[in-house]
């Protein structure tokens, strides 16, 4: 196994990680922005107010996009496991 192969495997792993986590992080970001605008407009300065909407938004994204996320991760793992013989030899 060459250093280039290790870098390629690591790059692919980070790429899959970013693709899978982007919808959840995006939903939390948008929800936090909406709650912050609401708090600024109403002058409600409660720090815990944004936690529950973010949690619900991320949960909804996991329910809706969960099968796609699992498929993407299992395809990556299958490719990685199927490449083991060529990586060893």
UniProtKB/TrEMBL annotation:
A GO biological process held by the record: protein secretion
Location in or out of the cell: Cell membrane; Bacterial flagellum basal body
Taxonomic superkingdom: Bacteria
The entry's keywords: Bacterial flagellum, Cell membrane, Cell projection, Cilium, Flagellum, Membrane, Transmembrane, Transmembrane helix
Membrane-crossing segments per the record: 16-39, 51-70
InterPro entries for the chain: Bac_export_3, FliQ
GO CC list: bacterial-type flagellum basal body; plasma membrane
Annotated membrane topology: Multi-pass membrane protein
Function comment: Role in flagellar biosynthesis.
Protein family according to the UniProt entry: Belongs to the FliQ/MopD/SpaQ family.
Protein's UniProt name: Flagellar biosynthetic protein FliQ
UniProt organism field: Methyloversatilis universalis (strain ATCC BAA-1314 / DSM 25237 / JCM 13912 / CCUG 52030 / FAM5)
Source species taxonomy: Bacteria, Pseudomonadati, Pseudomonadota, Betaproteobacteria, Nitrosomonadales
């Amino acid at each position: 196994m060459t250093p280039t192969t290790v870098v390629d495997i690591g790059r692919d792993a980070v790429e899959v990680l970013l693709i899978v986590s982007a919808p959840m992080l995006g939903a939390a970001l948008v929800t936090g922005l909406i709650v912050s605008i609401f708090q600024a407009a109403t002058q409600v300065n409660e720090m815990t107010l944004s936690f529950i909407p973010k949690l619900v938004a991320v949960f909804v994204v996991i329910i809706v996009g969960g099968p796609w996320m699992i498929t993407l991760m299992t395809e990556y793992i299958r490719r990685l496991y199927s490449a083991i013989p060529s990586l060893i030899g």
